[in-house]
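Give me the 3D structure for Small ribosomal subunit biogenesis GTPase RsgA.
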Amino acid sequence: MPKGLICKAISGFYYVESGGRTYACRAKGAFRNQHIKPLVGDWALFTPEGEGGRVEEILPRKNSFIRPPVANIDQFFFVVSACSPAPNLFVLDKLISIAEYKGVEPVIVLTKLDMEEADRIAAIYQKAGFPVLRVDYRSSGWRAPLERCLQGKVSAFCGNSGVGKSTLINHLGFTPEIETGEISDKLGRGRHTTRQVELYPLPFGGYLADTPGFSDVQLHRQEQILKDQLPYTFREMVPYLDGCQFTGCSHTCEKGCAVLAAVTAGEIPPSRHESYCALYEAVKDIAPWELEGGKKS
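Predicted structure for Small ribosomal subunit biogenesis GTPase RsgA (297 residues):
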């Protein structure tokens, strides 16, 4: 039985790429009873039938996401505009935390630099240990670092509506032209112009996924992170976690907390710690048994 990659899913059809061909497959009926939903990015075994076929088995995933609905992602490119809409660092930190928990490398991409500088944002995330790429269409220098990051990996672009995600993908030129939308002055949001998740092969190896835009992100129940695991999703905090005076430290307000000392010393960006505290407050009362076993998907 051949193996293929699900590169697109529309209206119950799963488009499986295998051996240089793409097959429009249906999923076998037993998946519904087994509560299995194929996702873009899944590797699958399938039975080809002409130009179509049937997906028979989803191979083990290294990760999966509810929003965007993708699987087996190596890295997320989080697109953040310097302005219009104004960057929401808490939402970005929440997304980064989920990515870290799922074992996906976060890459920060700054856009709209012709309208406003983003040095402060760049400094925060470089200090925290993340790759930061600047996209400025006034010069060609932005392209090579981005392509190097994409090479040989399965990558997804995510970002709030209006941040220029679709414009960036269009400039890369590896996918069909994607409609871009205007920013609403009233809400600071763009129209949701991307309608589906699709995975595109890259000429230098790897795949690029375009994902639907969103204006807010909720930690879905399947993606909530237990309070004991949350500190490990803030990579700049990890070196200090064993240095606290008391065991069971929440790293939010305790005396003798090595993390708080690192914030005071400028080793951890204050905005990142503030985001951690807000996320901790949201999950501190959740027990492991409430999260369907408390395991990663």
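Residues 270-283 form the longest helix (14 residues). Let me know if you want a second pass.
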